[in-house]
């Protein structure tokens, strides 16, 4: 028996740093990743798909988002089992019980609305632990495993969402999934594979080879938060083996990247190196770059840096300074403004700006640095 394990589609997600046409393209990529599961399923011969929670970004979505999402699921063409998670729980405002969803839901899409066993076909079952609120007060997996025992003729997949106690630093969170409980159920033969959602990076939990987070099929955060996003898991369970041997293969399907670059920039050579690194990055229109820059630059070099960032901000889906992790000082170099060919009051004003720019990190210093940078740019264009 072979199926696809995915999670955390979060359809309808927006990212504040995407502007212009980047946000619509990113949203389309998330839907395309879902629709593309049909091609992958046909290639590998998967019987069905399980989406382990957070199918939607939240329950209050525009009708267009819901309609387009359902069309993407329809395109998969095989049964797709959706588990409500913490972003889209089965509460009073649930998207899954809304008029639009219920009217347009394709025949191949099944919402795992009830806790417990759902038959996929004779001999194959899903054991579901859906979220009914954003803050469960108990381990939903432990609750659904109560009373479930081994069945020699049944292969059972547990589909759940949330943090696992061995990975979560907040051990007092009541909703945490207890790995010991899950592994006991695996040893007892009550379940044979655990499909988890919530963690957006592909992650194996424990050492059984049967407990996995698939991660999100399309990246949602920067690489310091999501180390390994963009995957779908192809899961094989040998139904002819009494032990139900499991094999898991990851397939990378994501097309976007969210990258953090940390650089020391102290000279024009550093600025040129950064320019080269950005230039060599491919698929810029699907790449988001966050820059953590530190160093001390002359006004000339800072102007070159600003010109570099301005150019690439037009090429990348997003390129911006990570302000809380950047610390750039601008210190005018001796003689940096001697060749401008100005004198008299104008020269005295430039000298005053240089002194202010060197003084401290006050608002006046920043303004003086900006004025000097503008002066250099104007001089470069022959306007000064």
Automatic annotation (TrEMBL):
Keywords: Exonuclease, Hydrolase, Nuclease. Residues 1-188 form the Calcineurin-like phosphoesterase domain. It comes from the Bacteria. This is Nuclease SbcCD subunit D. Pfam families: Metallophos. GO terms for molecular function: exonuclease activity. Belongs to the SbcD family. It comes from Mycobacterium asiaticum. InterPro entries: Calcineurin-like_PHP, DNA_Repair-Maintenance_Comp, Metallo-depent_PP-like, Mre11_N, UCP033093_metalloPase.
């Amino acid at each position: 028996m072979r199926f696809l394990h995915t999670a955390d589609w979060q359809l309808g997600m927006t990212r504040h740093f995407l502007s212009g046409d980047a946000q619509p393209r990113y949203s389309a990529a998330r839907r395309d990743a879902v629709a593309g599961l049909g091609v992958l399923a046909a290639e590998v011969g998967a019987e069905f798909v399980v989406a382990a929670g957070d199918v939607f970004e939240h329950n209050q979505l525009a009708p267009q988002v819901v309609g387009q999402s359902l069309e993407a699921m329809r395109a998969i063409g095989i049964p797709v089992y959706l588990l409500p998670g913490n972003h889209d729980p089965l509460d009073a405002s649930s998207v899954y019980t809304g008029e639009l969803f219920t009217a347009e839901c394709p025949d191949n899409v099944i919402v795992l609305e009830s806790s417990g066993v759902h038959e996929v076909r004779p001999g194959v079952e899903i054991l579901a632990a859906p979220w009914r609120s954003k803050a469960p007060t108990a381990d939903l997996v432990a609750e659904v495993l109560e009373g479930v025992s081994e069945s020699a003729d049944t292969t059972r997949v547990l589909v759940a969402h949330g943090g696992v106690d061995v990975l979560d630093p907040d051990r007092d969170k009541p909703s945490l999934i207890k790995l010991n409980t899950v592994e006991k159920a695996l040893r007892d033969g009550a379940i044979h594979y655990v499909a988890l959602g919530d963690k957006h990076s592909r992650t194996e939990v424990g050492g059984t080879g049967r407990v996995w987070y698939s991660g999100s099929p399309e990246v949602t955060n920067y690489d310091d938060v999501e180390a390994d996003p963009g995957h779908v898991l192809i899961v094989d369970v040998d139904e002819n083996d009494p032990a139900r041997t499991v094999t898991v293969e990851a397939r990378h399907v994501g097309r976007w990247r969210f990258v953090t670059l940390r650089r020391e920039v102290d000279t024009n050579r550093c600025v040129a190196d950064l320019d080269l690194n950005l230039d060599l990055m491919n698929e810029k229109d699907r790449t988001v770059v966050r820059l953590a820059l530190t160093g001390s630059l002359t006004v000339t070099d800072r102007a070159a840096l600003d010109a570099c960032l301005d150019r690439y901000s037009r090429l990348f889906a997003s390129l911006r300074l990570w302000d809380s992790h950047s610390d750039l000082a601008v210190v005018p170099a001796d003689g940096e403004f001697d060749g401008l060919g100005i004198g008299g009051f104008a020269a005295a004003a430039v000298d005053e700006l240089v002194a202010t720019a060197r003084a401290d990190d006050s608002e006046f210093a920043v303004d003086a640095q900006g004025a000097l940078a503008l002066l250099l740019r104007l001089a470069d264009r022959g306007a000064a």
